[in-house]
């Protein structure tokens, strides 16, 4: 999507100025991973319009290869959202405007699935299947394409209450879980959306055993993250940071984790890199983590971790 934001301290209702930036869960993850050295391609469908081209060029400038299906129809459009920064006691406000967005009609035949078949890993999120019945079907099919090609599959639950009800989301998510090798899920969503109980480690073990998921990563907000693989559990605290803009923090975490995971690093290091990427993202305006491997290395070094620059 494109994000429109008035300056801090100004309202959507009265501001005459807006900054415009591209942002979206999968593209944010792709950018973070690319900035940290991964070779990334972003598959999507955009309207063939100046706004669609703005999104494509924004993704490309961060080292991601866009593989876009262009929609020339006059009936589809570019999804946008509006973000009004809050300050206590006024909360931050987010307004979505994505009805009839081109992505809601995307089908597997429109996308370059050979890219998925030749990739080391295919990633998507729970936002995409929430957009329409068509995107639900497409998400399922693309995960099947990846699985059939022995491409590792990763999925971030990323539940959005403004898109669907928990019961509908749960049914769709559970239909996808058996296709996953790696699952990211906020602890709150495991409780609220999936109806699970117990500690983070118990949730991770249940998901791994029930759906045969190789790696489960539970994010826990201020309590950091926990990951389970091969019956071994690893925890990672957050890195303290000055928060300029929290939007995209979770995407930066996933992008950092996956970038490190793709190098063959131990699970502990992937978690640490993800947490460092998340902390750095919070210091930046916008959805996208415009960060470097050297910056991540500095965060880790300052906290007693080691990583190549």
UniProtKB/TrEMBL annotation:
It comes from the Archaea. SUPFAM superfamilies: Ribokinase-like. Keywords: Kinase, Transferase. The keyword Transferase applies. Gene3D superfamilies: 3.40.1190.20. The keyword Kinase applies. Residues 9-287 form the Carbohydrate kinase PfkB domain. GO terms for molecular function: kinase activity. PANTHER family: 2-DEHYDRO-3-DEOXYGLUCONOKINASE_2-DEHYDRO-3-DEOXYGALACTONOKINASE, SUGAR KINASE. Belongs to the carbohydrate kinase PfkB family. This is Sugar kinase. It comes from Natronocalculus amylovorans.
